[in-house]
């Protein structure tokens, strides 16, 4: 099954099923982020806005917690959800 097949299948789903897919996708992003991150790794913190614009900020992973990672960006440390982190 490729991405186009998935898109076509999603068009037939109702709102409750789409919400379940959104939840699952978010959980998968969190799980994959948690598995792939290491302390000291260079990462991008990606912020997506309602307007569709995205902002990427470079950072370094300082600590990995259960649901978030502490990332050093612009001289400060922030708690960032795994779903917002991409490997650099």
Give an overview of the whole structure:
The chain is α+β, with helices and mostly antiparallel strands. It has one domain (3-87): SH3 type barrels (Roll). It has two helices and five strands. The protein has helices at residues 3-10, 15-36, and strands at residues 42-48, 54-64, 68-73, 76-81, 85-87. It has a five-stranded antiparallel beta sheet. The longest helix has 22 residues, at 15-36. The chain is elongated, with a radius of gyration of 15 Å. 10% of the residues are buried.
Could you provide a short overview of the structure?
The chain is α+β, with helices and mostly antiparallel strands and 88 residues long.
Reconstruct the topology from this structure.
Elements: H1 3-10, H2 15-36, E1 42-48, E2 54-64, E3 68-73, E4 76-81, E5 85-87
Antiparallel strand pairs: 1-2, 1-5, 2-3, 3-4
Tell me, what is the CATH class?
Mainly Beta
Strands, total number:
5
Number of helical runs? Answer: 2
CATH topology: SH3 type barrels
How would a textbook summarize the main sheet?
Answer: 5 strands, antiparallel
Class based on secondary structure composition and strand pairing: alpha+beta
Distance between the termini: 28 Å
Oligomer: single chain
Based on the structure given, which CATH architecture is correct?
Roll
Q: Total domains, how many?
A: 1
Order of helices and strands: HHEEEEE
> What is the mean pLDDT?
91
Helical residue percent? 25-40%
- What is the overall silhouette? elongated
Strand order of the largest sheet: 4-3-2-1-5
Q: Beta fraction of the residues?
A: 35-45%
Poorly predicted regions are none
